[in-house]
Specification:
84% of the residues lie in helices and 0% in strands. It has 94 residues and is mostly helical.
Length: 94
């Protein structure tokens, strides 16, 4: 006798079959992820240095503006990364 979980998983598999990725496809997604992590790290290093300079100079308003800019840039890069990975995944199912 199957559990409720097993029955639910069977129904889910029928309605939306899972896609198994090849090693090459996984590598492509990992490359995109790695590339965007590098972009985020570069942006963080640059802006955190600018924030430190602003704080050191007593420019608190400038530091706050730069912190907001950093948050926006990181969020944008994360969204771009996810969109690019999703676009890649959509090509894999074909």
């Amino acid at each position: 006798m199957k559990s409720a979980y097993e029955l639910a998983m069977e129904r889910l598999e029928k309605s939306a079959p899972s896609v198994t990725l090849t090693d090459e496809q996984k590598a492509q997604i990992a490359d995109v992820d790695s590339s965007y992590r590098a972009k985020m790290a570069e942006k963080e290093l640059f802006l955190k240095e600018q924030i430190q300079k602003a704080r050191g100079g007593g420019e608190w308003g400038e530091a706050e503006t730069l912190e907001k800019q950093l948050a926006v840039e990181v969020r944008r890069l994360q969204q771009d990364c996810e969109e690019k990975k999703e676009k890649l995944r959509s090509t894999f199912g074909r």
